[in-house]
Amino acid sequence: MGSNPSEFKGDNLPVEMVSWYDVVEYCNKRSIKEGLKPYYNIDKNRKDPNNKSDNDNIKWTVTINEGANGYRLPTEAEWEYAAGGGQLSKSYTYSGSNNADEVAWYWRNAGDKYLSGEWNWPIIESNNNKTKSVGIKKPNELGLYDMSGNVREWCWNWYGDGLDSDSGSFRVVKGGGWIGDVSNNEISFRGKFEASGIGPDQGFRVIRGE
Question: CATH code at 148?
Answer without folding.
Answer: 3.90.1580.10
